[in-house]
Design goal:
The protein has helices at about 5-30, 40-50, 55-75, 80-95, 110-125, 130-135, 145-180. The protein has about 180 residues and is mainly α. Helix 1 crosses helix 5 (about 110-125) and helix 4 packs parallel to helix 7 (about 145-180). The longest helix is centred in the last third of the chain and has 36 residues, at about 145-180.
Length: about 180
């Protein structure tokens, strides 16, 4: 039997903290918990910021955040969990990008921090105080890290590019209305 070292404890604390924040944030979207607006309200918001269809976008974001967060906290399927959460946070960062970096100004600071931490956990792994370790890392193989992060990056890029295109089109239509 091996002793756990401070890296294992540090990874556990990081996973619990980031995973808990992500899961709670996703539960706001999915269930309306913690002062959230649930699927309907979040779907309307998603539609207003260019993610269409709004309800499907809210569901996808909520599942990525809740599922990714819970799996990160448990240390289970860590590459996929971290990649899913990082992808969701990249999508959130795109919405906040025009407001700059700092969260106090409505910027992407918080979303980027969560996403980068989730991606970092996907890369480093969960440590020995995890379900992945207890299960012999069957869902945490080395090849899964680039596969999960690559798939999440590709999917996120497609969604964000489509969203940005919709936002530019909406801005052009609004400008045309005011120029008349």
């Amino acid at each position: 039997m091996t002793c756990f070292d401070r890296r294992d404890l540090g990874l556990l604390l990081l996973r619990l903290g980031i995973g808990g924040v992500l899961a709670a944030h996703g539960a706001q979207k999915l269930f309306g918990w913690f002062g959230g607006h649930g699927i309907e309200g979040t779907g309307q918001f998603m539609e207003s910021v260019g993610y269409a269809p709004g309800k499907a976008s809210a569901t996808a974001a909520g599942l990525a955040e809740t599922g990714g967060g819970l799996l990160l906290a448990l240390g289970l399927a860590t590459p996929a969990a971290g990649a899913a959460a990082a992808g969701a946070m990249a999508g959130a960062s795109a919405v906040h990008l025009p407001s700059g970096f700092f969260a106090q100004e409505g910027g992407y600071e918080h979303a980027a921090s969560l996403g980068l931490t989730a991606a970092g956990l996907a890369v480093t792994g969960p440590g020995r105080l995890s379900l992945d370790h207890a299960l012999g890392h069957v869902l945490d193989r080395g090849w899964m890290v680039p596969a999960a992060l690559g798939a999440a990056a590709a999917g996120t890029a497609v969604v964000v590019v489509a969203r940005n295109r919709r936002v530019r089109q909406q801005a052009g239509e609004q400008e045309a209305l005011f120029e008349e």
